[in-house]
């Protein structure tokens, strides 16, 4: 695993992964509980007593056992759909520990979020604010809302996962926020409790995250001057991890920067991390199903896992370290490491230096604990793969492999 925090030696871990592949089959996701615990402790500890809440972003990985593990660590939750809200509650989170985000909330979602009395509904637009107010008045309650502001800050991440620029669809322009807070404070059905900002994901430098935090702190200060007192500032998620071994911002430094920006306001800090908590904890175990060498040209290593199981390379051209579980003798040569799907975009890596492999060898794709299994799909009628959770020297299947019958169960002929 990428983060080795347990006492498991590399040899023992190789043996464990080999056993898992035999028992659960491949492709298969495998997560390390120790890695998740360590990542959570690093963030939580860095607050050093400053009032805060870590709302684990379920969108990164919402498998029940993972969500329950985070609940057990004291995390709160960030849900992006009713499905995620229900998963969070099923795993023990109370409604007042859940923030609900989403750029296009349906009427049903608003109705239920209001009825549940969530800690905050992160509001994305003036229209949504109206709709939440109407539903809350109809239910005879005041909905706790936080306005998601768009600070027009470049997260310097991949364009497909940047959300804090004016050209992105998320939130309301920050200069419109004071007027909207005044409006919220005047509504019968709304209780403005916070400001929310989330400028993107896989952000590897602190500067954009700190700038976004400073922008919402300044907003809260202006609101206080108008007697609109917030309860928390939700700084979103977005902290990146190192997929290729190059240095990235340290989680503890990130927290310290947020606290430094916020301390003067005295307001509670909420964060919504996903990737940094679970990303390094996961590997995808796969087997080589074919090796092809075009004369004088490329070597192709075909895996039994592809874009069905892990979308990130096809979706964002994302880089993942890939290694044979057991290294054979011989020099590394370039190879395209591809999946079995009939799409040219179904490749995990191109022209990657890779050791010799043979059909049947196990291959490990690293850092797939976030935005891996959750984005999986069943294209070509390929059932969803199993997921396994390692805890020290033991492991258990936390999602078994889907069967074809289950995949077809919703259909009639
Ligand atoms: C609103 C919101 N909060 C939190 C997250 C989690 O982000 P990350 O996994 O990068 O920490 C996301 C993901 O993009 C998001 O959209």
Please, could you describe this protein's structure?
The structure is a single chain. The chain has helices at residues 10-24, 33-46, 64-72, 82-90, 107-116, 126-139, 177-186, 206-225, 251-262, 275-278, 312-316, 404-408; strands at 28-32, 52-57, 76-79, 98-100, 120-123, 143-150, 172-173, 190-196, 232-234, 268-271, 282-293, 299-303, 322-324, 333-338, 347-354, 362-366, 387-391, 394-399. By secondary structure, it is of the alpha/beta class. Strand 4 (98-100), helix 5 and strand 5 (120-123) form a beta-alpha-beta unit. The chain starts with 9 loop residues before the first helix and ends in a 5-residue tail after the last helix. The relative contact order is 0.16. The model is unreliable at 1-6 (pLDDT under 50). Bound molecules: pyridoxal-5'-phosphate. Pyridoxal-5'-phosphate is lined by residues 57, 59-60, 78, 101, 198, 201, 236-239, 272-276, 370. The site of pyridoxal-5'-phosphate has 17 residues, from helix 10.
């Amino acid at each position: 695993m990428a983060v080795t925090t347990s006492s498991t030696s590399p040899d023992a871990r190789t043996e464990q992964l080999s056993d898992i592949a035999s028992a659960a089959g491949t492709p298969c996701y495998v997560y390390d509980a120790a890695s998740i615990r360590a990542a959570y402790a690093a963030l939580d500890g860095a607050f050093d007593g400053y009032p805060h809440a870590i709302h684990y972003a379920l969108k990164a990985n919402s498998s029940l056992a993972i969500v329950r593990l985070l609940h057990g660590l004291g995390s709160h939750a960030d849900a992006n759909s009713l499905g995620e809200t229900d998963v969070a509650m099923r795993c023990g989170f109370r409604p007042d520990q859940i923030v609900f985000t989403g750029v296009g909330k349906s009427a049903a979602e608003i109705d239920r979020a209001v009825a549940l009395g969530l800690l905050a509904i992160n509001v994305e637009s003036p229209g949504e604010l109206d709709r939440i107010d109407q539903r809350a008045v109809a239910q005879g309650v005041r909905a706790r809302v936080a306005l998601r502001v768009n600070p027009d800050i470049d997260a310097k991440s991949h364009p497909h996962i940047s959300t804090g620029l004016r050209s992105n669809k998320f939130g309301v322009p920050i200069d419109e926020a004071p007027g909207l807070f005044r409006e919220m404070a005047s509504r019968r059905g709304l209780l403005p409790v916070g400001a929310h900002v989330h400028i993107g994901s896989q952000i590897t430098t602190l500067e954009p995250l700190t700038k976004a935090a400073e922008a919402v702190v300044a907003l809260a200060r202006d609101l206080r001057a108008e007697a609109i007192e917030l309860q928390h500032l939700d700084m979103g998620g977005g902290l990146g991890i190192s997929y290729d071994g190059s240095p990235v911002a340290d989680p503890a430094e990130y927290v310290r920067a947020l606290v430094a920006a916020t301390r003067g306001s005295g307001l509670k800090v909420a964060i919504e991390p996903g990737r940094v908590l679970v990303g390094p904890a996961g590997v995808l175990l796969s087997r080589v199903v074919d090796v092809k060498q075009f004369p004088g040209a490329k070597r192709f290593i075909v895996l039994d896992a592809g874009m069905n199981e892990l979308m990130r390379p096809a979706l964002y051209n994302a880089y993942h370290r890939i290694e044979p579980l057991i290294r054979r003798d011989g020099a590394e040569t370039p190879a395209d490491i591809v999946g079995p799907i009939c799409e040219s975009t179904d490749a995990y890596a191109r022209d990657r230096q890779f050791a010799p492999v043979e059909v049947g060898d196990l291959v490990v794709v690293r850092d797939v604990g976030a935005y891996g299994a959750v984005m999986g799909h069943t294209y070509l009628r390929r059932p969803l793969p199993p997921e396994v959770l390692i805890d020290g020297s033991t492991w258990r299947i936390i999602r078994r492999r889907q069967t074809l019958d289950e995949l077809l169960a919703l259909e009639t002929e």
